[in-house]
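Colleagues,

Please find the record for the two-part complex below.
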Amino acid sequence: GIQVEQSPPDLILQEGANSTLRCNFSDSVNNLQWFHQNPWGQLINLFYIPSGTKQNGRLSATTVATERYSLLYISSSQTTDSGVYFCAVATLETSGSRLTFGEGTQLTVNP
Amino acid sequence: NAGVTQTPKFQVLKTGQSMTLQCAQDMNHEYMSWYRQDPGMGLRLIHYSVGAGITDQGEVPNGYNVSRSTTEDFPLRLLSAAPSQTSVYFCASSYGGNSYNEQFFGPGTRLTVL
Protein backbone atom coordinates (compact mmCIF):
# COMPACT_ATOMS: atom_id res chain seq x y z
CA GLY A 1 0.00 0.00 0.00
CA ILE A 2 0.92 3.65 -0.15
CA GLN A 3 3.46 5.00 2.34
CA VAL A 4 3.04 8.42 3.94
CA GLU A 5 5.94 10.09 5.73
CA GLN A 6 5.68 13.31 7.69
CA SER A 7 8.50 15.51 8.89
CA PRO A 8 9.61 16.70 11.29
CA PRO A 9 8.11 14.34 13.88
CA ASP A 10 8.33 17.04 16.55
CA LEU A 11 8.54 20.82 16.36
CA ILE A 12 8.77 23.38 19.14
CA LEU A 13 8.21 27.06 18.36
CA GLN A 14 7.91 30.35 20.12
CA GLU A 15 4.66 32.19 19.58
CA GLY A 16 4.85 34.32 16.45
CA ALA A 17 7.26 32.06 14.56
CA ASN A 18 6.54 30.50 11.17
CA SER A 19 6.81 26.80 10.36
CA THR A 20 6.64 24.37 7.47
CA LEU A 21 5.43 20.79 7.82
CA ARG A 22 6.08 18.26 5.09
CA CYS A 23 4.21 15.18 3.85
CA ASN A 24 5.82 12.78 1.36
CA PHE A 25 3.86 9.97 -0.25
CA SER A 26 5.01 6.99 -2.27
CA ASP A 27 2.39 6.79 -5.04
CA SER A 28 0.08 8.95 -7.09
CA VAL A 29 -2.86 10.25 -5.09
CA ASN A 30 -6.21 11.75 -5.97
CA ASN A 31 -7.01 12.82 -2.44
CA LEU A 32 -4.80 14.56 0.12
CA GLN A 33 -6.04 16.15 3.30
CA TRP A 34 -4.44 17.87 6.27
CA PHE A 35 -5.87 17.52 9.76
CA HIS A 36 -5.17 19.09 13.13
CA GLN A 37 -5.65 17.09 16.33
CA ASN A 38 -5.83 19.45 19.30
CA PRO A 39 -4.45 18.55 22.74
CA TRP A 40 -7.92 17.31 23.75
CA GLY A 41 -7.96 14.79 20.89
CA GLN A 42 -10.45 16.45 18.56
CA LEU A 43 -9.62 16.07 14.85
CA ILE A 44 -10.38 18.95 12.51
CA ASN A 45 -10.04 18.97 8.75
CA LEU A 46 -7.79 21.82 7.58
CA PHE A 47 -7.47 21.35 3.84
CA TYR A 48 -8.53 19.08 1.01
CA ILE A 49 -5.67 19.64 -1.42
CA PRO A 50 -4.76 16.88 -3.92
CA SER A 51 -2.89 19.50 -5.96
CA GLY A 52 -2.20 23.24 -6.02
CA THR A 53 -2.24 25.79 -3.21
CA LYS A 54 -4.89 26.86 -0.74
CA GLN A 55 -4.91 29.39 2.07
CA ASN A 56 -7.09 29.78 5.11
CA GLY A 57 -6.06 32.63 7.38
CA ARG A 58 -2.61 31.97 8.80
CA LEU A 59 -2.51 28.48 7.33
CA SER A 60 -1.75 27.55 3.77
CA ALA A 61 -0.96 24.31 1.99
CA THR A 62 0.70 23.36 -1.26
CA THR A 63 0.69 19.96 -2.93
CA VAL A 64 3.04 19.11 -5.79
CA ALA A 65 1.43 15.90 -6.96
CA THR A 66 4.02 15.16 -9.65
CA GLU A 67 6.78 15.19 -7.03
CA ARG A 68 4.66 13.42 -4.40
CA TYR A 69 4.79 15.86 -1.54
CA SER A 70 2.66 18.41 0.27
CA LEU A 71 3.61 21.27 2.57
CA LEU A 72 1.60 22.90 5.33
CA TYR A 73 2.65 26.43 6.29
CA ILE A 74 1.75 28.00 9.59
CA SER A 75 2.53 31.69 9.92
CA SER A 76 2.61 33.79 13.09
CA SER A 77 2.00 30.70 15.19
CA GLN A 78 -0.22 30.88 18.28
CA THR A 79 -0.40 28.61 21.31
CA THR A 80 -3.75 27.34 20.02
CA ASP A 81 -1.91 25.89 17.01
CA SER A 82 -0.36 23.28 19.30
CA GLY A 83 -1.29 19.67 18.65
CA VAL A 84 -0.60 17.02 16.05
CA TYR A 85 -0.86 17.68 12.35
CA PHE A 86 -1.70 14.74 10.11
CA CYS A 87 -1.51 14.31 6.39
CA ALA A 88 -3.79 11.66 4.84
CA VAL A 89 -3.97 10.41 1.26
CA ALA A 90 -6.05 8.14 -0.94
CA THR A 91 -5.19 6.63 -4.30
CA LEU A 92 -7.02 5.94 -7.54
CA GLU A 93 -6.54 2.24 -6.82
CA THR A 94 -9.06 2.43 -3.99
CA SER A 95 -11.31 4.93 -5.79
CA GLY A 96 -10.58 7.41 -3.04
CA SER A 97 -12.45 5.36 -0.48
CA ARG A 98 -9.54 4.56 1.85
CA LEU A 99 -7.53 7.28 3.55
CA THR A 100 -4.01 6.43 4.73
CA PHE A 101 -2.61 8.66 7.45
CA GLY A 102 0.96 9.63 8.19
CA GLU A 103 2.29 9.43 11.74
CA GLY A 104 1.92 13.14 12.26
CA THR A 105 3.99 16.14 13.35
CA GLN A 106 3.68 17.08 17.02
CA LEU A 107 3.74 20.90 17.21
CA THR A 108 4.23 22.76 20.47
CA VAL A 109 3.91 26.55 20.46
CA ASN A 110 5.21 28.20 23.61
CA PRO A 111 4.03 31.64 24.76
CA ASN B 1 -26.66 19.72 14.02
CA ALA B 2 -24.96 17.45 16.53
CA GLY B 3 -22.41 16.43 13.88
CA VAL B 4 -20.75 13.07 14.52
CA THR B 5 -21.45 11.56 17.92
CA GLN B 6 -19.77 8.57 19.52
CA THR B 7 -20.70 6.60 22.61
CA PRO B 8 -19.34 5.70 25.04
CA LYS B 9 -16.46 8.15 25.62
CA PHE B 10 -14.57 5.67 27.78
CA GLN B 11 -14.84 1.89 28.17
CA VAL B 12 -12.93 -0.78 30.04
CA LEU B 13 -13.37 -4.40 28.98
CA LYS B 14 -11.96 -7.71 30.08
CA THR B 15 -10.31 -9.98 27.54
CA GLY B 16 -12.93 -11.99 25.68
CA GLN B 17 -15.82 -9.60 26.25
CA SER B 18 -17.75 -8.18 23.33
CA MET B 19 -19.14 -4.71 22.88
CA THR B 20 -20.42 -2.22 20.33
CA LEU B 21 -19.07 1.27 19.82
CA GLN B 22 -21.80 3.55 18.55
CA CYS B 23 -21.39 6.21 15.87
CA ALA B 24 -24.13 8.44 14.50
CA GLN B 25 -24.22 11.48 12.24
CA ASP B 26 -27.07 13.84 11.41
CA MET B 27 -25.61 15.41 8.26
CA ASN B 28 -26.97 12.84 5.81
CA HIS B 29 -23.43 11.83 4.88
CA GLU B 30 -23.03 8.76 2.70
CA TYR B 31 -19.42 7.97 3.62
CA MET B 32 -18.61 6.79 7.14
CA SER B 33 -15.49 5.19 8.54
CA TRP B 34 -13.85 3.86 11.69
CA TYR B 35 -10.23 4.44 12.66
CA ARG B 36 -8.08 3.43 15.57
CA GLN B 37 -5.29 5.60 16.92
CA ASP B 38 -2.46 4.10 18.94
CA PRO B 39 0.15 6.16 20.85
CA GLY B 40 2.63 7.90 18.57
CA MET B 41 0.90 6.67 15.46
CA GLY B 42 -1.44 8.04 12.90
CA LEU B 43 -4.96 6.82 12.39
CA ARG B 44 -5.47 3.42 10.79
CA LEU B 45 -8.64 2.59 8.89
CA ILE B 46 -10.62 -0.35 10.31
CA HIS B 47 -13.79 -0.42 8.17
CA TYR B 48 -15.66 2.01 6.01
CA SER B 49 -19.02 2.39 4.31
CA VAL B 50 -19.90 4.27 1.14
CA GLY B 51 -23.62 4.15 1.83
CA ALA B 52 -26.37 2.28 3.66
CA GLY B 53 -26.03 -1.47 3.18
CA ILE B 54 -22.45 -1.23 1.86
CA THR B 55 -19.36 -1.84 3.98
CA ASP B 56 -15.78 -2.79 3.26
CA GLN B 57 -12.56 -3.57 5.10
CA GLY B 58 -9.83 -1.09 5.74
CA GLU B 59 -6.23 -1.58 6.79
CA VAL B 60 -6.79 -3.35 10.15
CA PRO B 61 -10.21 -5.09 10.08
CA ASN B 62 -9.43 -8.25 12.06
CA GLY B 63 -11.44 -8.60 15.27
CA TYR B 64 -14.02 -5.99 14.25
CA ASN B 65 -17.39 -6.13 12.51
CA VAL B 66 -19.54 -3.34 11.13
CA SER B 67 -22.96 -2.92 9.58
CA ARG B 68 -24.74 0.03 7.99
CA SER B 69 -28.49 -0.45 8.08
CA THR B 70 -29.23 3.30 8.02
CA THR B 71 -27.47 6.36 6.63
CA GLU B 72 -27.15 7.81 10.14
CA ASP B 73 -25.60 4.94 12.12
CA PHE B 74 -22.38 2.97 11.73
CA PRO B 75 -21.70 0.78 14.79
CA LEU B 76 -18.39 -1.00 15.33
CA ARG B 77 -18.51 -4.38 17.07
CA LEU B 78 -15.65 -5.98 18.93
CA LEU B 79 -16.35 -9.69 18.84
CA SER B 80 -13.93 -10.92 21.53
CA ALA B 81 -11.85 -8.11 22.97
CA ALA B 82 -8.07 -8.51 23.20
CA PRO B 83 -5.47 -6.28 24.90
CA SER B 84 -4.13 -5.41 21.43
CA GLN B 85 -7.43 -3.61 20.80
CA THR B 86 -6.68 -1.07 23.53
CA SER B 87 -6.78 2.17 21.57
CA VAL B 88 -8.71 5.35 20.84
CA TYR B 89 -11.40 4.81 18.24
CA PHE B 90 -12.62 7.57 15.94
CA CYS B 91 -15.61 7.59 13.67
CA ALA B 92 -15.74 9.96 10.70
CA SER B 93 -18.22 10.89 8.02
CA SER B 94 -18.26 12.93 4.84
CA TYR B 95 -20.55 13.96 2.04
CA GLY B 96 -20.49 11.70 -0.99
CA GLY B 97 -19.57 8.07 -1.43
CA ASN B 98 -15.85 8.38 -0.90
CA SER B 99 -13.29 10.14 1.25
CA TYR B 100 -12.67 13.11 -1.08
CA ASN B 101 -14.74 15.60 0.83
CA GLU B 102 -14.12 17.19 4.22
CA GLN B 103 -14.02 14.52 6.88
CA PHE B 104 -15.95 15.23 10.10
CA PHE B 105 -14.67 13.31 13.11
CA GLY B 106 -16.42 12.29 16.29
CA PRO B 107 -14.82 12.96 19.69
CA GLY B 108 -13.46 9.43 20.03
CA THR B 109 -13.91 6.45 22.34
CA ARG B 110 -11.01 5.50 24.59
CA LEU B 111 -11.07 1.71 25.02
CA THR B 112 -8.94 -0.27 27.46
CA VAL B 113 -8.91 -4.07 27.34
CA LEU B 114 -7.51 -5.77 30.44
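The mean pLDDT of chain A is 94.

Comments are welcome before we finalize the supplementary table.
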